[in-house]
Design a protein that fits this description.
About 10% of the residues are buried. The protein is elongated, with a radius of gyration of 21 Å. It is of the alpha+beta class. It contains six helices and seven strands. The strands form three sheets. A three-stranded antiparallel β-sheet has the order 3-4-5. The protein has a two-stranded antiparallel sheet with strand order 1-2. A two-stranded antiparallel ribbon has the order 6-7. About 40% of the residues lie in helices and about 20% in strands. The protein has helices at about 30-45, 80-85, 90-100, 110-115, 135-150, 165-170, and strands at about 5-10, 10-15, 50-55, 60-65, 70-80, 120, 125.
Length: about 180
């Protein structure tokens, strides 16, 4: 096991000691580290089990929040200045709940059964990034699939003798 981690600081990635014995060697300011710990505690208390990740950007004055169980790429960004003044971190609670709802999950504790029944497409959870009605969302997803097939980003594998070939070709716009 290593005692080093890679962090981003002022736009640059560098390797630092994972455990700091000397506060003068800390990469981030103590106030930001404390804020990150408070944010993690609030998220885990309010929405336990979702494996929350917090990525601070001291130079930018923001903190990104993610649920690693859902997606490590799409999250929620909060400015740090208002968070320092928010004793209950209400914005953090709202951000965590918004992440869950955008992926179709209820605000609350993690449940494998709920997670498994999520909006999965091609092995990835798909967020609801629109407020359009469900029929329009399905049409948008179908268009994304057609475009992915047309550009080669998505490939189709159809078993020999399967009667799903017609549906696959129709989705590809070839029938």
């Amino acid at each position: 096991m290593t005692n080093q981690v890679t962090v981003q600081h002022e736009g640059h990635f560098r390797t630092v000691e994972a455990f700091v014995d000397d506060p003068n060697k800390m990469v981030l300011k103590a106030g930001l580290i404390g804020l990150c710990k408070r944010i993690a505690a609030v998220l885990e208390r309010q929405y336990p089990g979702w494996l929350w990740a917090i990525r601070p950007d001291e130079a930018g004055g923001i903190i990104d929040i993610f649920s690693v169980r859902i997606d490590g790429k799409w999250g929620y960004t909060l400015h740090t200045d208002p968070l320092h003044e928010d004793e209950n971190l209400r914005a953090v609670t709202e951000a965590g709940g918004e992440i869950l709802e955008r992926y179709g999950f209820p605000r609350g504790a993690y449940s494998y059964d709920v997670w498994k029944a999520g909006n999965w497409r091609f092995g990835t959870l798909v967020p609801l990034l629109t407020d359009k009605e469900r029929g329009m969302q399905r049409a948008m997803h179908a268009q994304m699939v057609r475009q992915g097939i047309a550009t080669g980003q998505i490939g189709l594998i159809v078993e020999h003798g399967s009667n799903h070939l017609g549906a696959a070709l129709k989705a590809a716009g070839r029938k």
